[in-house]
């Protein structure tokens, strides 16, 4: 077995034992398992296991629990998407990462899989913060961060309310899609709908830019039809006034269960008086991930785009 499979077996066996003995839901039992490991009550050590082995093992266990859960907000950003986002973060901060760690926030943390994928890819080069309103999801994220030894500051709250977060170099976010129910808070946003309820994913884009440094970047996983909705005109106007679109990356259709669930990567740079708009917006499609040659050509295209747009920040 691979090392992550060995770790998963340890974690899953213990969690299933708790389910059988205590009648817990699997996600609750998994959380107790991770916390028991941290408290030294249960040993899961696998020789020479790396942080990515541990993250993958925990991710698989969480996915198992989510399949058993009826909660619609219990979803996870797949590894493939996290790794692609990590590549773009690394490209956009190539110079900075040679000299210092960058500050990153995920305002829709969930269980932290996207943020931890980025942190593992840039190991030791990220000062991270996560915001999540769901109690069990943020506790799973906290336990995962401790176990893979990735330090992250967590806030349990509505991410669209005022945050106790200093402006960051980068935002990474798999945007929650749908209507935002708190109309009183939505009124504080430029992207508040003129009629009816506001889109949460639009408000998250605005909130993310509120907490991004001038010249900083935001990396969003967005609905593929983001700019085709009834509120798209308002969103486009907002982005034009506050940020520069750096890239729109179409993701392979086979990564998603249906066309309605397809996503793209949207990369924005917050406008700054010291910088200029990009010479070229990258419009590209990620090829099938199993086609190594096509994938290599895609990443070469990204590298050339980055070189052509390089400017001192």
What's the total count of β strands?
Answer: 8
* CATH fold descriptor of the largest domain: Rossmann fold
Spatial strand sequence of the major β-sheet: 3-2-1-4-5-7-6-8
Biggest beta sheet attributes = 8 strands, mixed
Question: How many individual helices?
Answer: 11
Rounded average pLDDT: 92
Under the CATH scheme, which architecture of the largest domain would be assigned?
3-Layer(aba) Sandwich
The rounded distance between the terminal residues' Cα atoms is: 46 Å
| Structural class category | alpha/beta
Order of helices and strands: HHHHHEHEHEEHHEHEEEH
Low-confidence stretches: none
Strand content: 15-25%
For this structure, the quaternary state is single chain
**Annotated CATH homologous superfamily of the largest domain:** Vaccinia Virus protein VP39
Just give the CATH class of the largest domain: Alpha Beta
Radius of gyration: 20 Å
Helix content: 40-55%
What can you tell me about this protein's structure?
- With 313 residues, this protein is of the alpha/beta class.
- It folds into 2 domains: 3-68, DNA polymerase, domain 1; 79-309, Rossmann fold.
- It is built from 11 helices and 8 strands.
- The protein has helices at 3-22, 26-38, 51-68, 79-92, 94-97, 113-121, 135-147, 183-186, 200-210, 232-242, 292-309; strands at residues 102-106, 126-132, 152-156, 168-174, 212-223, 243-250, 263-270, 282-285.
- The chain has an 8-stranded mixed β-sheet, with helices on both faces.
- Strand 1, helix 6 and strand 2 form a beta-alpha-beta unit.
- The chain is globular and about 55 Å long.
- The N and C termini lie far apart (46 Å).
């Amino acid at each position: 077995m691979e090392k992550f499979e060995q770790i998963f077996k340890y974690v899953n066996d213990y969690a299933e034992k708790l389910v059988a003995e205590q009648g817990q839901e699997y996600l609750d039992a998994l959380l107790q398992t991770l916390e028991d490991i941290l408290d030294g009550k249960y040993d899961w050590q696998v020789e020479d296991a790396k942080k990515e082995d541990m993250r993958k093992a925990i991710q698989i266990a969480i996915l198992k629990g989510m399949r058993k859960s009826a909660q619609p907000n219990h979803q996870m950003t797949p590894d493939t998407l996290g790794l692609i986002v990590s590549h773009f973060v690394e490209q956009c901060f190539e110079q900075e990462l040679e000299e210092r760690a960058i500050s990153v926030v995920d305002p829709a943390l969930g269980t932290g899989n996207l943020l931890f994928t980025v942190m593992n890819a840039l190991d030791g080069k990220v000062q991270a913060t996560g915001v999540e309103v769901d109690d069990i999801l943020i506790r799973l994220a906290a336990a995962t961060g401790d176990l893979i030894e990735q330090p992250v500051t967590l806030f349990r709250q509505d991410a669209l309310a005022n945050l106790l977060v200093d402006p960051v170099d980068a935002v990474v976010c798999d945007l929650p899609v749908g209507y935002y129910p708190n109309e009183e808070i939505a009124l504080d946003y430029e992207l508040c709908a003129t009629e009816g309820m506001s889109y949460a994913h639009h408000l998250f884009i605005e909130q993310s830019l509120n907490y991004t440094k001038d010249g900083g970047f935001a990396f969003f996983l967005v609905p593929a039809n983001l700019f085709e909705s009834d509120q798209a005109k308002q969103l486009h106007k907002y982005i034009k006034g506050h940020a520069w679109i750096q890239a729109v990356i179409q993701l392979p259709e086979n990564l998603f269960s249906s066309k309605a669930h397809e996503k793209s990567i949207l990369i924005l740079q917050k406008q700054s008086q010291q910088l200029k708009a990009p010479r070229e917006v990258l419009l590209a499609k990620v090829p099938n991930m199993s086609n190594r040659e096509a994938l290599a050509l895609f990443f070469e295209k990204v590298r050339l785009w980055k070189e052509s747009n390089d400017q001192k920040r």
